[in-house]
Amino acid sequence: MKFRIFFVSCIALFFTPLFAQVIPKNFGLYSPYKIGNQMDPSLDSEPRSEPSQKDSDIPKEKSKVKYFSINPGFTLESVTVDIKGRGNNATMTQPGPGKQSWMLDIKSADYQISKYFGIHMLLHNSSFELNNQFVASKPEIEGSSYSSSESSSSGGSGTPGESNRVKTDLGTRIRGVYSMAIPVFYFGNSDSDSFRFGLGVGPSRVQLEGNADFQNPNLGFAFALANPSNRTEFLNTLSAYQFFSGNVNPASGDVVSSYLLANLSAGNNLELLGAYLASKGLLRPDALALSAYASGRYTPLEALAISSLFRTQVNFRSTTFTSFMVFFETPKIVDLLRIRISFGGPIVKDNGYTYEFRTFHFAFFTPLEF
After folding, report:
1. What pLDDT is stored for residue 36 in this prediction?
2. How far is C-alpha 352 from the geometric centre of its chain's CA atoms?
3. Residue 164, exposed/middle/buried by CB under 10 A (0-12, 13-18, 19+)?
4. Which is the most buried residue in 131, 161, 274, 283, by most CB within 10 A?
């Protein structure tokens, strides 16, 4: 009797809900999670994790410029400026292969026309100093050692009617800066990190200041008519000649330099002009400056200013819409640097003169994309 009571009690306890909650789900005898021979996953309180995909298996999208990119870097720049007008001609350039400097360009996002063609806007700025000129070499003398050495240094062919030219320092100096904002039409893949070949034409802003030697015989004739012993008359002749034959534009050029040049014989304006030009690195001692100082009528700064004024002055700012650039650009190297090789520059017309820039850039830069 006691065994029967114990057996019934065990059966009742086994099927009560309280006891059923502590029975393992996979016990098999009683489990609300089991339907037939299969487990119901919707009733499982422990969600199953899906097999994870490795990050390396997920394809990564290549970065593209959404708005614009800032391109800081390093560049080797060579600048040559041809100056023509009013019967004068001079070519200013740099010594050596060019100038090393930092660069900071801004480029807009690409507008892709097709898979391999697109357009973007490029903002480029550059400052430079030109202190050499190309001048005609001396006449060749047949059979002389000078003839062969001069021809080889100038690289000319010596054809009749065409003078060979050599690069030399005549004491002339021109400093300037130009800024270009040009739309560029390029050939390249729609991916921004690819090879690019492009051509752009657009506006630019140019500022030039300094002097050039046109080797004009009229300059010596004009000064020969002046009386060197009369300081006022001589300085007035210098001033008038520069405004007549040079490119001094008071409306757009340097106001201080233009004012001092226009009133050269008044007070100590000649000395102030010398100090102002010297502060910009536009003066250099030469034989003419020494001769003026040896006369005893001029201070050292005045003598240097006179030497500069014996050359044609350049002082203006101008905007042009005829700037161009041709370039070749590589993809990123080691996911960091890009290389750009470009050629071009502004073509400016001002006050009867034409200034044609020929610039060559070899640049390394890192695009910061936004």
Report:
1. 46
2. 28
3. buried
4. 274
List strand residue ranges (DSSP E) for the chain, in order.
34-35, 38-39, 68-85, 88-93, 99-108, 111-112, 117-130, 132-136, 165-168, 174-188, 196-212, 247-248, 312-329, 338-345, 347-350, 353-365, 368-369
**pLDDT tens per residue across span 97-137:** 889 999 999 999 989 898 889 999 999 999 999 999 998 77
Task: DSSP letter for 227, please.
Answer: -
* Token digits of residue 153: 């240094």
Calculate Rg over the CA atoms of the chain.
Answer: 40
Residue 157 sits at φ, ψ, to 5 deg, of -95, -10
**Cβ-contact 323, 204 below 8 angstroms:** yes
Cα–Cα distance, 51 to 110 (Å, whole number)? 39
Q: Is the pLDDT of residue 8 over 50?
A: no
Q: What is the mean pLDDT of the chain?
A: 78
Task: Please state, as a whole number, how many other Cβ atoms lie within 10 Å of the Cβ of residue 18.
Answer: 7
DSSP 8-state code for residue 46: S
Which of 1-15, 160-174, 343-357 shows the lowest mean pLDDT across its residues? 1-15
Across residues 3-12, what is the average pLDDT? Answer: 48
Tokens linked to 26: 């996979």
Q: Within a 10 A sphere around the Cβ of 238, how many other Cβ atoms?
A: 21
Half-sphere exposure of 293 (CA within 13 A, CB side): 15
Quote the crossing angle between the two packed helices 269-279 and 300-309, to the nearest 10°: 80
Bridging pattern class, strands 247-248 and 312-329:
parallel
Stretch (H or E) spanning 301: helix 300-309
Task: Supply 205's token pair.
Answer: 């802003």
Least Cα distance to 125 among 40, 201, 60, 182 occurs for 182
- State how far the Cα of 45 lies from the Cα of 49, in Å rounded to an integer: 13
**Average pLDDT rounded to a whole number, residues 148-157:** 40
% of the chain beyond a pLDDT of 70 = 71
Nearest Cα residue to 93 out of 76, 101, 81, 75: 81
